[in-house]
Amino acid sequence: MGTLKTEPARERPDLLAPPVLAALETWTEPEVLVAPIDPALADTAEFCEAYGVGLAESANCVVVAGKREGETRYAACLVLATTRADVNGVARRRLDVRKASFAPMDVAVAETGMEYGGITPIGLPADWPILIDARVAATPYVIIGSGVRHSKIALPGTALVRLPGAEVIEDLAR
Hints:
four-stranded antiparallel β-sheet; 24% helix; aminoacyl-tRNA deacylase activity; YbaK/aminoacyl-tRNA synthetase-associated domain-containing protein; YbaK/aa-tRNA-synt-asso_dom_sf
């Protein structure tokens, strides 16, 4: 986990977005840690370099969207920072839409209640599938967003598969 100074996430509500904190009140996973960071270094490459975290220990959560019969469908894709989500292949098929793309920034922020650059799978809308690349689930400890840019969450990859709506998918990322 590099030089991150982690603490139990539930003890630091000031480091979590409101939807993340609310989710942690009902999701009883014990090993959820949080660490403060410089918000100017929240983007993955800068964060990893500044805090000595390997890209293979860091995961990005991207919001994808597609339409079917006039209805917009959303999903979160969680992939290691060394890979890219297969949005128009695997994610599109899972959403059952003709075309999937990254949700626009303003839409992702409004729909999640989280800051752009800090979106995390913890605390997302209940009807969204959370698609987790199998490599993320296999990571001993993975660093993800906290819903805000001034902190990061660290937890076992196996914990993520126990999130409500989580689905582990082989080759979600390339």
